[in-house]
Amino acid sequence: MKVVIAEKPSVARDLARVMGAKETNDGYISGNGYAFTYAFGHLVQLCTPQAYGFHNWSIANLPIIPTEFKLESKKLKRDGKQIDDAGALKQLNTIKYLLDKAEEVIVATDAGREGELIFRNIYYYLGAKVPFKRLWISSQTDKAIKEGFANLKEGTEYDSLYMSARSRSESDWLIGINATQAITLAAGNRGLLSLGRVQTPTLAMICSRYLENKDFKPQTFYKIQAGFEKENIKFKATSEKIDKKDVAEEAIAKITIGSEATVTKVEAKETKEQPPLLFDLTSLQQDANKKYGYSADQTLNIAQTLYEKKVITYPRTGSRYIGEDVFEQIEALFQHLADTAEEGIATISRNLIGAKLNKRSVDEKKVTDHHALLVTDEKPGALLQEQRNIYNMIAKRMVESFSDVCLKDITTVVINAGGVELIAKGTVIKQYGWRLSADQVELPDEDKNTEDQDNENAQLPKLTAEELLEILSLELSERFTKQSRYTLKHHC
């Protein structure tokens, strides 16, 4: 009998159905030569300090550094004490019963670092010796599952992934246990103070920036802005930053509405704006936060649900690229989107079928454990609104990433008004390319550089050097330098 260990009951049920196992038992599903069992996330954990004889918090005990880390079944905290999780113990007994009868084990926990750790901890805690192979798939569709079972990997191929997960887990334990006890004891009767490998440096960065901003004193500066019009196109031109008010007032006094200004320089440059790369988990979380206000955890949970519904590929990916083998399936996915997606996405998808696709996101060497996020060929059906939002973000990014470049003419015009140099910039899109389908996420207000936008115009008329323009409006504005805070975009 081959024993398959999944990470969740729902995944075990899906695998069992696809592989023809139909007999439901307590804690597993069997049939067709298989037994499909499951964990509930981490059934096994690193032992608590109590297991090494440190029953009380004391400065004298620190630092606690085990000569060898040991494993124990999952614990619950009740009335200040660690007790066994009865459900975890029961499921571990079921898995041990199956392993004792197994001729081979198939690892079907999530194909990633944490999934590998979940299985290995169970395997080593139970003292199993049965050889194991790895089911490594990037989506939960029936086709992907069948192909995965037909192409199982040797378990030893993922030893380094396990060691990476184990190192992270043990470093979390060492820092979390020792630092938390040390600061809590040092602080006296102030309650539990928690420190950790990730949370503490992150909090330190935020606090450091807060202290910088607390003492921040805005600096005043001034800008002169003039308005012009040609061929029924209105545009504005703005001076560079002027630090002193009297200098700014002296400069604007030389200019009057109705007087003429001279175009001294016109520089037009064609630029190619490549489409964005496909989403990995981090970039999806960033954009979902900006567009919908979802937290990183919320986005991950939604994406995980979509993965389990088989409508997107594996979400915990750190790559924004796909390989040539996956690229060969992209046109079929566009046909799927053309038939099932919302109208805007469907229309662009239709146009991409048979077209020459942009391959910026295709690079086998940059694919890590899993390729970038894609939709699958499963119909999404009825989804909750938040699930629909994330699904559509992934689908839109797909049609953007494989669309043509956006061609733009960026024009910079320098104008002399009474001896004051004013600058006007304008962008003309000659070929929309991927921007035809783009649903661009605006940065929060504090992330926008107002100074850079002063001389930006949606459109500029055709201008030439030495041309005279009438000044139609004139303004001297007082501005203030701004402080900056960390955002998800900057430091996620």
Task: Give a verbal description of the structure.
- The chain has 492 residues and is of the alpha+beta class.
- It is built from 15 helices and 19 strands.
- The strands form five sheets. A seven-stranded mixed β-sheet has the order 2-3-4-1-9-10-11, with helices on both faces.
- Helix 9 (296-308) packs across helix 13 (385-401) and helix 11 packs antiparallel against helix 12 (343-352).
- Residues 440-451 have low confidence and may be disordered.
Number of helices: 15
Q: Describe the largest sheet.
A: 7 strands, mixed
- Note the overall shape: flat
Please tally the β strands and state the result.
19
Adjacency order of strands in the biggest sheet: 2-3-4-1-9-10-11
* Parts with pLDDT < 50 across at least 5 consecutive residues: 440-451
How would you concisely characterize the structure shown here?
By secondary structure, this protein is of the alpha+beta class. It contains 15 helices and 19 strands.
